Amino acid sequence: MNTEKLSQRLEAVANYIPRGSRLADIGSDHAYLPCYAVKKGVVPFAVAGEVVEGPYQSAKRQVKMKGLDEQIIVRKGNGLEVIALGEIDCVTIAGMGGALIASILEEGKNKLDSVKRLILQPNISALTTRQWLLDNAWELIAEEILEEDDKIYEIVVAEKGDPLKPYKNLQKELLLGPLLMKQSSAPFQKKWRNELKNWQRILKQLENAAESEETILKKKELNEKIRMVEEVLDK
Questions:
Q1: pTM beyond 0.85
Q2: Which domain of life is it from (predicted)?
Q3: CA 145-127-80 angle, 5° bins
């Protein structure tokens, strides 16, 4: 992967960046995504944010090497603290857990007033990301699921609007993704069949464990998840 050719998952993220927007890529690593977006003429300006010194220095070197210093600013800081109020209108956060993405958005939500689009790629627990969007009046406008190198990735895209609009069965759709459920693609089927097997294995272990309030609650939660996923896959 480089600034000319992104990984499949990052290219999918890039496809949702509105042309002409001012981008902030949080957790930018080597700044591949902002460099790609600027070189392709998708965005005129980008901020690459990194909290860790090593990736921060890697991003700075990448931007300098590509001669993009005037269009891409690399900043070191935690989450959205790397952007100024009103500076950015599109934010990408890719390659983190859903809970971490949600906490970054929550801690920096005062910086989101001028932001028109969020493009998020949680590695796990997309549910947590969807829940944050729902709680903070961001409407889910697109979802994508893909497989790359035997790993399955979900992409969640949101704009300010009616957060309940995509949902009909809230609990089930927060878990599986309301738009992904409609598509029911091969990666979607594969992901949730694997999850089912995992949950059924855990449930079997719990059946053999000493009964406690904790195990009773866990079994109830797993049975409910299994029921919801089986309903969707059976369709």
A1: yes
A2: Bacteria
A3: 90
